[in-house]
Every structure is written in C-alpha cells, then in structure tokens.
C-alpha cells in the first residue's frame, strides 16, 4: 500500500469514527437562528452575494474583479458560534474562503482574531484548513489540517467555542484545535475585546496554494462558497459590560463542563492530532527558537 492509499484509508476510518462520536455532542448545543438580514451585513460587493429562492442558503462569489464578504451586526464576547459551509469545488487553487471572528472590520494593528481559512486546491489534491489566533495585532499561531471528508461535496459545520478558559476550533463538532488560557495576564489568549463574526471569499494566490506556486485559474470562475444554518449562543456585547459574562452566568458555554474537553472530545482530538495535522507553529523551531508560552499548556487540562 503506497503512502497516498494509506492516507486515504486513515481518512475513511476517521470519517466513520468521528461522524459517530460527533453526534454525542449535538445535545449540548443551543441554537439561535434567523435570516441573513437578521444577523449580517454585506461588507463589500453586494452584486457578488446571492441566496437560494427560499433565502436559506447564501452564496459568496469571487471573480477576477473582486470577492465578497459579510459580518454580523452584533459583537459578542464569549459563546458558541457555528455555521455550515460548502466550499468551492473543482480547481480552486489560490482561492481562500475565510470564516473568522475579529474585533474590527479590517486588519487593525491592535485587533484580536480567531481564524478559519480554507485554502483552495488543484483538482485532486486535499483541501487544507488553516487556523490562527491573534491578540493585540500579533498572530503567527498558524496550524494546518487535512479534513476527513471532501468539504466541496456537502455542507459541514465549522464552529468556535470561546470562553475565558479555552478556545476550541471544531469541525462537525469535533475539536481540531485547542488554545488554553493560563489564567494570568498574557499576550496569546484573546479574552478582553468583543468580536464580530465574518466570512469572505478572496484571491490569495500569492501564498494560499503550495506557497503561491499554484495560481488562480480565472477561466474557471466565478468561484462560489455556500453557507447556511448560522447558529450563535453567545454573550451579546453591550457597553460598558454585558450582564451575561459574570461569575453568576448560567450559559452552558461558560459552565465548568465547557471549560474542559469531554472524554469523547479528548478521543476525537487525539485522532486528529495524530493523523490530520500538517503544520503546527508550536513545533516550528526554525521559526521560533523559543517555544511560545501557550504551547506548553496542555489541551487536556
């Protein structure tokens, strides 16, 4: 069995195991949904946004003129944020679909940010998912994963759990990345500033596919990413400080059980770490001669 066949078998096994275990997490999730207009505003290129006839599926398109993006009307501090996405199919080299939380619209010098970035591919190659975390404008905390399914064939759920104890990046309820807080003032865990949720599609062929070696083939455009079932169970920000973030909070995402991985989540997370991680900045000694502080914190705590 060659390396590619072995990798494919591992991914198929993971798909079965993780799909089964992810159902056990569904009951813990409280959904609050609405129409696109209820939750979001278009940031740019209104003519590159469309919906299905019933308004339940939303489409962002990218061509050689521009992409498109949207953001929530509300800011939040802590909670559960979830959306179903279907990514650009076929040859999507150079195309990035970004799904992220950020304190402001634009790359501000003091921003906090939690990123999912889906990096397009040449036909037949796997999609990669990159996550990153910024605090006060400093990022450099990239991780890259393969997925255990083809994200262009159907909708899959991408979620962020954010509380003062840890941040989970989840795919179909499976945690693929954990960032722990150390409970002290630090420069790596964003927990002070409220964030909007954004998504966008844009051209990044200077870096996104094989480090920029593969360029976007505009003859195949427009490139379209699809969305549905936005779900948020979170603390909506109100100045000067929201009541829902306090020592007396009764929100499930800020209770003890949500401060730690469950036993099922630990098993899922271990599988992902062993089989699907392509890059981890914590292990990049050429880039970081000293291991970043947050890398020493155990996700199992």
UniProtKB/TrEMBL annotation:
GO terms for molecular function: hydrolase activity, hydrolyzing O-glycosyl compounds; xyloglucan:xyloglucosyl transferase activity. Glycans are attached at residue 121. GO terms for cellular component: apoplast. CDD domains: GH16_XET. Its EC number is 2.4.1.207. Residues 1-24 form the signal peptide. Gene3D superfamilies: 2.60.120.200. SUPFAM superfamilies: Concanavalin A-like lectins/glucanases. The active site is at residues 113, 117. Residues 24-227 form the GH16 domain. One of its GO terms (biological process) is cell wall biogenesis. Keywords: Apoplast, Cell wall, Cell wall biogenesis/degradation, Disulfide bond, Glycoprotein, Glycosidase, Hydrolase, Secreted, Signal, Transferase. Its main location: secreted. It is found in: Secreted, Cell wall; Secreted, Extracellular space, Apoplast. Contains at least one intrachain disulfide bond essential for its enzymatic activity. Catalyzes xyloglucan endohydrolysis (XEH) and/or endotransglycosylation (XET). Cleaves and religates xyloglucan polymers, an essential constituent of the primary cell wall, and thereby participates in cell wall construction of growing tissues. PANTHER family: XYLOGLUCAN ENDOTRANSGLUCOSYLASE/HYDROLASE PROTEIN 8-RELATED. Belongs to the glycosyl hydrolase 16 family. This is Xyloglucan endotransglucosylase/hydrolase. It comes from Abrus precatorius. The lineage of its organism: Eukaryota, Viridiplantae, Streptophyta, Embryophyta, Tracheophyta.
